[in-house]
Automatic annotation (TrEMBL):
This is Ribulose-phosphate 3-epimerase. A divalent metal cation binds at H32, D34, H65, D175. HAMAP family: RPE. CDD domains: RPE. Gene3D superfamilies: Aldolase class I (3.20.20.70). Its EC number is 5.1.3.1. The gene is rpe.
Length: 214
């Protein structure tokens, strides 16, 4: 059964708590929190204070996706604010092993994300330390973009890499352009955690929207 993680980037920021409660009632498994710094990606969203503010709203795990330069500088503040798992971009970390260990030593599961053009080879020597690998299925920065089909062979390649090393317990997460149609493709290719922003929050019936992704 897939894990569905609605991205609050597509939620109503003027009523964030209500929208989070609504998707929890609708069957969401995780809450995906897109942190953007305007440097690593051409958009700026929110920081740890917002995570802290919404923490009491739900018991669902906060899946924090750091699309920021030098994430090591802010990881402690997101942990303090209530993150349950943190994913950093391989492209944003000069010392990726050190950043992943920073997350793990704080007791949180660690994830590494790859932009569409980045090969997954960078993670081959880190598999023992990872709980999740995120394959971006759009270029990061915005919700509502078109799914990039070249993500599918990359997903299959990752699934094979993990299976060959006995690491199939590591979550394969996809993020960007995931909807009722593309969810079928990514699940067949190996994804078990599906992030969806517009496909959930722009729908009136969030329960039906989440069910359509599983
Ligand atoms: C993009 C974010 C995604 C995005 C997904 O940079 O990482 O999580 O919010 O939004 P949709 O599902 O609408 O493409
Ligand atoms: Zn994301």
């Amino acid at each position: 059964m897939s894990i569905i993680a609605p991205s609050i980037l597509s939620a109503n920021f003027a009523a964030l708590a209500d929208d989070i409660k609504d998707v929890e009632r609708a069957g969401a498994d995780w809450i995906h929190i897109d942190v953007m710094d305007g440097h690593f990606v051409p958009n700026l969203t929110f920081g740890a204070p917002v995570v802290q503010a919404i923490r009491p709203v739900t018991k669902l795990p906060f899946d924090v996706h750091l699309m920021i330069e030098r994430p090591e500088q802010l990881i402690p503040s997101f942990i303090k604010a209530g993150a349950d798992r943190i994913t950093v971009h391989a492209e944003a970390c000069t010392h990726l092993h050190r950043v992943v260990h920073m997350i793990k030593e704080a007791g949180l599961p660690a994830g590494v994300a790859f932009n569409p053009a980045t090969p997954i080879a960078a993670v081959e020597n880190l598999l023992d330390d990872l709980d999740l690998i995120l394959i971006m299925t759009v270029n990061p920065g915005f919700g509502g973009q078109q799914f990039i089909p070249q993500s599918l062979p990359k997903l299959r390649q990752l699934r094979t890499m993990l299976a060959e090393r006995g690491m199939s317990h590591i979550h394969i997460q996809v993020d960007g352009g995931i909807n009722a149609q593309t969810s079928v493709l990514v699940r067949e290719a190996g994804a078990d955690v599906l992030v969806a922003g517009n496909a959930v929050f722009l729908e009136q019936d969030r329960a039906a929207a989440i069910a359509s992704l599983r």
